[in-house]
Amino acid sequence: MKYLKENKLIILTIIILCSLMFVFINQKQGFHEDEIFSYGSSNYKYDNVYRWFGYAEANQDILYNQVLTGSFSNRIVNLIKFYQNPDQFKKNEILAKEIPIFRSKDDALDYLAIQKEDIFNYFSVYYNQARDVHPPLFYFLVHFISTFFYNNFSKYIIFIINLFFFIGTLISIKKILFTLNRQNLTIPTMILYGASMGAISTVMFQRMYMMLTFFSILYLYYIIKYIKNDFKLSDNFFFIGTIICGFLTQYYFCIYIILIFIIISLYLLFKKAIKKWLNFFKPHLIAAVIGILFYPFCIDDIFFSYRGLGGNDNKTNNFFENFQYYFQQIEKLFSIDNILLILIFFIIIFLLYKIFKKEKIKINKIDLLQLCVIILPIIFFIVIISFIAPFLGENYTSRYIMLLFPIIAIAGFYLLSFLFKNSKNLFICSLIISLILSINGLFNHTPIYLYKDYGKAIELAQENADKYFVYVFDNYFTHLSSMEEFAIYKESLILNKNIHDFSLLNNDKLNNSNEFILCIKNWLNKEEILNLVLDNSNYKNYEILLELNSDVESTYYRITK
User: Fold this and answer.
1) pTM > 0.70
2) Would you state the pLDDT for residue 316?
3) d(CA 358, CA 347)
4) What is the phi/psi pair of residue 493, to 5°?
């Protein structure tokens, strides 16, 4: 009866935490460009990025038909050839010129949403990822769920995927704590993680990091179970499957499991348990071979790409600054960045420790190994990521440690458990801590990746849906964050300030119109851009319609004659 009651409370906790995710997904109005890339590279057969120049011109009808033809093995061979030397395949002449043209709202929707002829076109998804630096499993899932939203774009497509893996992560927390014989920590740990800004941000972020988190913690569960089972793997098939799926989700999974693999290997080799080590090594080797054979492009991605170990820009990062930044992110995303709150946190632990009978801390070798397997990879993972992860900034680097958040929650309470002999007292203490941190976070902090202001840009687009839209930026990628607008306006002209001639504004479509909507990214010299626009068109006047400074960083103008 007690077990049934315990499980009902756990299920209720999961339902409440999932309901919390629905509250925040309803607040999400916009997207980071990488989030839109998740949809486009999963559903768009012509390219993995939405280009400003032409439809088939952007790539790819010719290239697509030459590479993705014949048998499965022939396609793989062609992909590898293309990957090594793209120039050997004939390209459309317009591709090299990259001259911006007006793109229709149907073009934009085609990038975002799956079309009839593209349903179950998984090789196209594979092809798009072979041209990028990530493995394809997450994108396969996005493509699959998108088929149920045929010809429609919705933030709920990836939210469904993330929610599924969030629930899986909560269940894995339960399985780990039950295996550790810390059942009473299950609900507090679920709350500490599941209601944190870190977990909410992971679910809101429409990339592969929630999926990565799940496979990482599932791997940890199998390792804890393996230790408890006297270093015997009882679920070889699922263990290998977990490694393959984690590897094909995100390469940082490799870093995490290698760290755990090293700890277990050192322990077994120190004990001279060579046979057990070989039995532990074998499933990892099998998984690695299967993963590489299925996706051979991983070798270049990991060792030679700009995001991999060979990326030169990574070496310029300041390690100590990055390392400090990651810990600040952990404090923030667990809502312990308030000094007063941290003080209260330790006062509670101290008082409870004094109130209840003080016991000597007893940790046997297995407990110590389990602590090492849970805690040490967290520290070393942050050290490694501080060296190799690109970009320093909240919207970039916090994603690289998302897989650690549930493991940190487990580690904190598992450590705390050694201070208490009475399980009821441990439950009360851990529940108080998790509730204080969660309530503080929910009332005083906001998860990232909501982009609430973007709703105003969508409203503006809907009010001017019959007009032309000119979008000015300065790179090749950030325009993806505005794809929803491109799918609303009559037609859109995307101009890169650094490479495009603004005389392109002197065209029949704009010349025969009385006004158009202009968007300029806020980090550009807006006055300079406005002068370029007016000097190179027959328009003379402008008025500011909307200025967004928080997340979206865009200013919108009405340009008139």
Assistant:
1) yes
2) 46
3) 16
4) -115, 120
- Closest C-alpha among 250, 208, 226, 186 to residue 406: 186
Contacts by residues 385-389 (CB-CB < 8 Å, ≥ 24 positions apart): 385/252, 385/255, 385/322, 385/326, 386/317, 386/319, 386/322, 386/323, 386/326, 387/314, 387/317, 387/319, 387/322, 388/309, 388/311, 388/314, 389/314, 389/317, 389/322
Task: Strand 554-560: give its sheet, edge to edge.
Answer: 103-104, 491-496, 468-473, 515-521, 554-560, 541-548
User: For the chain, which residues make up each domain, given as ranges?
Assistant: 2-22+159-444, 32-154, 454-560
Which amino acid is located at 182 in the chain?
R
Work out the number of other CB atoms within 10 angstroms of the CB of residue 143. Answer: 24
Contact 148, 154 (CB under 8 A): no
User: Residue 113: its pLDDT value, please?
Assistant: 94
Taking the C-alpha atoms of residue 383 and residue 377, their distance in angstroms, rounded to an integer, is: 10
Segments of the chain with pLDDT less than 50: 1, 56-58, 90, 92-94, 312, 314-316, 394-395
Q: Strand, coil or helix: what is 221?
A: helix
Determine whether 13 is exposed, middle or buried from the number of CB atoms within 10 Å of its CB (0-12, 13-18, 19+). buried
Amino acid at the residue 550:
S
Nearest to 195 by CA among 452, 434, 450, 449: 434
Who contacts 289 (Cβ-Cβ below 8 Å, separation ≥6)? none
Check residue 357 and report its DSSP letter: P
For residue 351, the model assigns a pLDDT of: 62
User: How many Å apart are CA 1 and CA 455, to the nearest integer?
Assistant: 49
Task: Put residue 486 in one of left, alpha, beta given phi > 0 → left and psi -120 to 50 → alpha.
Answer: alpha
Q: Which pLDDT belongs to residue 90?
A: 47
Q: Are 19 and 85 in contact (CB under 8 A)?
A: no
- C-alpha 26 chain-centroid distance: 19
Q: Which of 173, 100, 189 is nearest to 426 (CA)?
A: 189
Per DSSP, helices labelled H in 295-422 are 298-303, 319-333, 339-355, 365-388, 394-397, 405-417
Side chain identity at residue 64, one-letter code: Y
Q: Which residue has the tokens 């004094």?
A: 354
Cβ atoms of 212 and 441 closer than 8 Å: no
For residue 540, give both structure tokens. Answer: 């003379």
The tokens for 36 are 């839109």
pLDDT of residue 292: 95
**Segment 15-44, tens digit of pLDDT:** 999 999 999 999 999 999 999 999 999 998
Q: Name the maximum alpha-carbon separation found in the chain.
A: 84
CA angle 170/175/176 to nearest 5° reads 95
Among 521, 490, 516, smallest CA distance to 504 is for 516
DSSP strands (E only) in 76-172 = 103-104
d(CA 151, CA 397): 33
Question: How, if at all, do strands 468-473 and 491-496 pair?
Answer: parallel
Q: What is the pLDDT of residue 219?
A: 98
CA–CA separation, 226 and 234 (whole Å): 8
